[in-house]
Amino acid sequence: MTDKPSRLSTTIDFAAEGKQCDFVRIPHSVHRSAYGWLPMPICCIKNGDGPTVLLTSGTHGDEYEGQVALTRLIREVEPDHIKGRLIISPMTNYPSAKAGLRTSPIDDLNLNRVYPGDPDGTVTLAIAHYVETVLMEMSDYVMDLHSGGSSLMYLASSIVPIGDGGADYQKRLELAGAFGAPISFVMPGGAATGTSSSGAARKGLIGIGTEMGGSGTVTPDCLAICEDGVRRALGHLGVLTQGIPDAPATPSRILRAPDFTYYAYASEDGLYEPLVELGDEVEAGQPAALIHYPETPWREPAQVNFEQAGLVVCKRIPGRTERGDCLFHLGRDVDPNSLE
């Protein structure tokens, strides 16, 4: 990663006490605006000494639950409600969030695949570089809120990177437990290349993510879980001092997908008929979907089977599908302290 400073800027003084809301200015020179900039909203709330928590959403612009949750948090939390500092970025990939798209309409890049970014790169690369070298640099913890977007629907889950294991993994697991989503999904060791998790790992941050609903809309039940979870997690860290929801009656169910055999993919182009639903327990070899061919309706549909047993945690939404599209993925129950 280059040592060059970011070209993005803001009027916010992150060291100042109180509540400040403004924009990160992303330089963007185009035909209609030669010296223009794109306004990425950001808020800093600081009250005395304590941890700094970075809260992000809108990494993918068609994932809405996190954006609503953080927007409400900005409006409702005041400095005397916290101890430490909150940095809140609800539309982290501003162009894609503005357009309601997974990838940026400017450079067609996926922000969660390009970390650590490039200060001299396209808009998405410049955003990734700013988040990692400026916002993460001053943070101790990070929560990156995602959902299934337009193409997927998830059971409400927190995402826990295993990383290298050890004490940091235990802290992430405890943070997810405090968040209190119905599912805590443990991700394989080693942060995936280009993700915000990889940036957090490079900066030594304790971080978790979420997958909260999806289907291209705001799902009220997942939104409530997300909002309460963020506040509980902030309370667990000692940053939020009031308005902390009670812990859920049932602790998170801890799941893992050890490899891609826990995912079911479309084998053909066509119209897919799901044969199971979210929350179903399935067996290895069980039919997952049929793929129909309306263009040649006399053909028998192709059948996609699950390779593994587990809980259906994610389901594709659009009926039209192409070979290689993810239709479902599963999780299996694990002991979080003895992962293989």
Structure in words:
48% of the residues are buried. The protein has a 15-stranded mixed sheet that branches. A four-stranded antiparallel sheet has the order 16-15-13-18, with no helix packed on it. Strand 8 (157-161), helix 4 and strand 9 form a beta-alpha-beta unit. It has helices at 65-76, 94-99, 123-135, 166-179, 196-202, 220-236; strands at residues 9-10, 18-27, 37-47, 52-56, 84-89, 141-146, 152-154, 157-161, 183-187, 206-211, 253-256, 263-265, 270-274, 281-282, 287-292, 302-305, 310-316, 320-321, 326-333. With 340 residues, the chain is an alpha+beta fold. It has two domains: 9-256, Zn peptidases (Aminopeptidase, 3-Layer(aba) Sandwich); 260-333, OB fold (Dihydrolipoamide Acetyltransferase, E2P) (Beta Barrel).
Please tag this protein with its features.
alpha+beta; Aminopeptidase; 19 strands; 340 residues; globular; OB fold (Dihydrolipoamide Acetyltransferase, E2P); 6 helices; 15-stranded mixed sheet; 20% helix; 4-stranded antiparallel sheet
Largest sheet: 15 strands, mixed
CATH topology of the largest domain: Aminopeptidase
What class do helices, strands and sheet pairing give? alpha+beta
Under the CATH scheme, the architecture of the largest domain is 3-Layer(aba) Sandwich
How much helix is in the residues?
10-25%
Number of helices: 6
The CATH C-level name of the largest domain is Alpha Beta
Strand content: 25-35%
Number of strands: 19
- Cα(first) to Cα(last) distance is 31 Å
- Name the overall outline: globular
Mean pLDDT: 95
The succession of helices and strands, N to C, reads: EEEEHEHHEEEHEHEHEEEEEEEEE
Which parts are unreliable, with pLDDT below 50 for 5 consecutive residues or more?
Answer: none
How many domain units? 2
CATH superfamily of the largest domain: Zn peptidases
Task: Please give the radius of gyration in angstroms.
Answer: 20 Å
